[in-house]
Task: structure prediction
Amino acid sequence: MATAPRFVVGLHDATTLHFDLRLQFGKVARSWAVPKGPSLDPAVKRLAVPVADHGLDALDFEGVHAGSSRGTGAVIVWDEGTYALRSERDGHLSFVLDGSKLHGAFALTRTGPDRWVLVKMRDEAALPGYDVVAQEPRSVRSGRTWQQVARGEPASG
Result:
């Protein structure tokens, strides 16, 4: 029985604070930087900038990137889970997330050479008007904020 591919959304303090959306495709994690983070509101469109594929170890990292010259280098696992790919064609991905914070169908659509848009599809998991990023800022793994990770504070619990 095949295991569903994994996804992770990390909150990363680099040059600017941003979210990293990573989807497992075989032995790599395809990645997009999402400056404002994902939304559960189908009316909200989020810029998503493709970045280099990462190894699968990127799906498990929470901590501080040592020697970071930009930002603190702190990363939290803001959300994680599995996903099902609905469709993939040139410039468009449609997938269903089953995470702790993010659920339901999402789409990534290319709008330019290095510009994509991430949107929540209208389904039973959509929450119009709800700002999941503001309301749920902590790591699903450790319960910490990115600031607590940057300061080296231990996980709660």
In short: The CA atoms of residues 92 and 109 lie 4 Å apart.
